[in-house]
């Protein structure tokens, strides 16, 4: 799977959403999250993010390695909705992201 890391927080450019062929990039309050089971590893989202927030799971920079688990755990109680556009924004964030001070201000 691919992972969205800290540069997305409080920015949410959303260019990635338009590129994803399987609509597996979901919106939280302060960040977007890639569904680990729905992502087909096409990689189309990665180059369009203007702040380089997106990485293949094995390539997440060391300082953001916890974002792999954060993206996975965001979906713990959601299961696999099968499409982000159908469920719309989700009114929460993973605790790792919720605890961050304001970013990208
Ligand atoms: Fe975030 Fe970059 Fe997408 S800032 S919303 S991961 S284009
Ligand atoms: Fe979609 Fe990016 Fe995965 S475009 S399929 S989230 S690699």
Automatic annotation (TrEMBL):
<dbReference type="GO" id="GO:0046872">
    <property type="term" value="F:metal ion binding"/>
</dbReference>
<dbReference type="GO" id="GO:0009055">
    <property type="term" value="F:electron transfer activity"/>
</dbReference>
<keyword id="KW-0408">Iron</keyword>
<feature type="domain" description="4Fe-4S ferredoxin-type">
    <location>
        <begin position="30"/>
        <end position="59"/>
    </location>
</feature>
<dbReference type="InterPro" id="IPR017896">
    <property type="entry name" value="4Fe4S_Fe-S-bd"/>
</dbReference>
<dbReference type="InterPro" id="IPR017900">
    <property type="entry name" value="4Fe4S_Fe_S_CS"/>
</dbReference>
<keyword id="KW-0813">Transport</keyword>
<comment type="function">
    <text>Ferredoxins are iron-sulfur proteins that transfer electrons in a wide variety of metabolic reactions.</text>
</comment>
<dbReference type="InterPro" id="IPR050294">
    <property type="entry name" value="RnfB_subfamily"/>
</dbReference>
<dbReference type="Pfam" id="PF00037">
    <property type="entry name" value="Fer4"/>
</dbReference>
<keyword id="KW-0003">3Fe-4S</keyword>
<keyword id="KW-0004">4Fe-4S</keyword>
<keyword id="KW-0677">Repeat</keyword>
<dbReference type="InterPro" id="IPR000813">
    <property type="entry name" value="7Fe_ferredoxin"/>
</dbReference>
<keyword id="KW-0411">Iron-sulfur</keyword>
<keyword id="KW-0249">Electron transport</keyword>
<dbReference type="GO" id="GO:0051538">
    <property type="term" value="F:3 iron, 4 sulfur cluster binding"/>
</dbReference>
<dbReference type="InterPro" id="IPR054830">
    <property type="entry name" value="FdxA_Actino"/>
</dbReference>
<keyword id="KW-0479">Metal-binding</keyword>
<protein>
    <recommendedName>
        <fullName>Ferredoxin</fullName>
    </recommendedName>
</protein>
<dbReference type="GO" id="GO:0051539">
    <property type="term" value="F:4 iron, 4 sulfur cluster binding"/>
</dbReference>
